[in-house]
């Protein structure tokens, strides 16, 4: 299997919503319209992972603020359950972090999502807080995590 990575487009919104329903069942998964709104924003960047021309993963990051130094927030990373454990999420995370450059990056992750937490920690994220009942539908808690700004090298 060959996985290719490119930008997510409006034509991918329905497939993203389909994956959301599988991945985040019980946690208010995003509908296709939410992805279309995200993709229409000029300060949000999405990556896609495709296997045999089928969308198997997506990830998005938003640039925050109007002037540098910018901060960023990862909005979502999702990988088709049939393709998990193959490093697809890590490649997408790395591409989102490349987009953020040296900027500070934030995210929220369910406290029981041990594989995602381990991936984020290995990428330099640290837990900075707990959001009780962050996921409204299920009532699950989330950690707020941060990858501190890196010193720019010249």
TrEMBL record:
Where does this protein reside within or beyond the cell?
Cytoplasm
- Could you tell me the keywords of this UniProt record? Acyltransferase, Cytoplasm, Transferase
Q: A GO molecular-function term, please?
A: protein-N-terminal-alanine acetyltransferase activity
User: GO terms for CC?
Assistant: cytoplasm
Write down the chemical reaction(s) this protein catalyses.
N-terminal L-alanyl-[ribosomal protein bS18] + acetyl-CoA = N-terminal N(alpha)-acetyl-L-alanyl-[ribosomal protein bS18] + CoA + H(+)
Q: Which residues form the N-acetyltransferase domain?
A: 3-150
- InterPro entries hit by this protein: AcTrfase_RimI/Ard1 (IPR006464), Acyl_CoA_acyltransferase (IPR016181), GNAT_dom (IPR000182), YpeA/RimI_acetyltransf (IPR050680)
Protein EC: 2.3.1.266
Whether Acyltransferase counts among this entry's keywords is yes
Q: Which Pfam families match?
A: Acetyltransf_1 (PF00583)
Task: Supply the Gene3D superfamilies for this chain.
Answer: 3.40.630.30
Name the job this protein performs: Acetylates the N-terminal alanine of ribosomal protein bS18.
PANTHER family per UniProt: ACETYLTRANSFERASE (PTHR43420), ACETYLTRANSFERASE YPEA (PTHR43420:SF44)
Similarity section: Belongs to the acetyltransferase family. RimI subfamily.
The protein here is known as [Ribosomal protein bS18]-alanine N-acetyltransferase
- Please tell me the species this chain comes from: Mycolicibacterium agri
Q: What is the lineage of its organism?
A: Bacteria, Bacillati, Actinomycetota, Actinomycetes, Mycobacteriales
């Amino acid at each position: 299997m060959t996985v290719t990575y490119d930008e997510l487009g409006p034509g991918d919104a329905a497939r993203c919503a389909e994956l959301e329903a599988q991945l985040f069942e019980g946690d208010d998964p995003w509908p296709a319209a939410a992805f279309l709104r995200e993709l229409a924003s000029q300060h949000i960047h999405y990556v896609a992972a495709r296997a045999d021309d089928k969308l198997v993963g997506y990830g998005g990051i938003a640039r925050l603020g109007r002037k540098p130094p910018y901060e960023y927030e990862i909005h979502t990373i999702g990988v088709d359950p049939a393709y998990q454990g193959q490093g697809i999420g890590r490649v997408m995370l790395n591409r989102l972090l490349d987009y953020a450059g040296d900027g500070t990056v934030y995210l929220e992750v369910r406290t029981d999502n041990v594989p995602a937490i381990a991936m984020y920690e290995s990428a330099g994220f640290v837990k900075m807080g707990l959001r009780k009942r962050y996921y409204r539908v299920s009532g699950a808690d989330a950690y707020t995590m941060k990858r501190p700004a890196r010193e720019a090298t010249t």
